[in-house]
Prior knowledge:
InterPro entries: FAD-bd_FR_type (IPR017927), FNR_nucleotide-bd (IPR039261), Riboflavin_synthase-like_b-brl (IPR017938). The chain has helices spanning 81-87, 126-134, 156-159, 175-185, 199-211, 225-228, and strands at 4-15, 18-23, 35-41, 55-59, 69-74, 94-102, 111-118, 139-147, 167-172, 192-196, 219-221. By secondary structure, it is of the alpha/beta class. It folds into two domains: 4-102, Translation factors (Elongation Factor Tu (Ef-tu), domain 3, Beta Barrel), CATH 2.40.30; 111-228, Nucleotide-binding domain of ferredoxin-NADP reductase (FNR) module (Rossmann fold, 3-Layer(aba) Sandwich), CATH 3.40.50.80. Strands 4-3-6-1-2-5 form a six-stranded antiparallel beta sheet. The longest helix is centred in the last third of the chain and has 13 residues, at 199-211. It is globular and about 55 Å long. The model has no long low-confidence stretch (mean pLDDT 94).
Amino acid sequence: xxxxxxxLVDVIDEATDTKTFYLDLPEGFTWEEGAxxxxxxxxxNSGEKPDKGLVRHMSIATLPEEKTIGITTRLRAERSRxxxxxxxxxxxxxxxxxxxxxxxxxxxxxxxxxxxxxxxGIASFRxxxxxxxxxxxxxxxxxxxxxxxxxxxxxxxxxxxESYPSLTAQYVTDRPDYxxxxxxxxxxxxxxxxxxxSDDFLRETIATMRxxxxxxxxxxxxxxxxxxxxxxG
Length: 233
């Protein structure tokens, strides 16, 4: 396993309790849109065994062409040990990256694509939208639906662009409104649906879509292949 050590460049406030950590791009580190990585904090491998409490599976919210690795996450008042250490990082702090992989690359099958997310999970879709704006070949349209009880719309400037009518977005603040809109979107039986969120969110959304006749083949989730069968047949 190759470990890439790099440094923190900047931290940006995206919304209340939500920040993006921008990391220097280490030589040889590459990824695709929709990728995740293991972000480890300094000291995670200083003992006889790795300290798993200093490692977290994180989505990468940027594309390689941006020349930085962006990690967007919540930092609430009550934090885990990992989030506490993460919040204390300063510019120049060292972190490690390893086991980078993507489960949700952008599919180009001449069909509409729908991005369904909960909370900060929408950050996983930011690079997919950027890739679509770079090259929309093979994608009829791209629509994002995000539920966030905070009411603060993450990345709304990117997801809603009047100059690009085939890119649309909806933001809702509660589950009933979200599922009402999912039912409506699922009327497009030709679409491809990406889902990112908690395990319960995935299961509930998948069940709703199945009821509307959407097949498992049309659903893509941010889970490794060996865990996909826990959610999809």
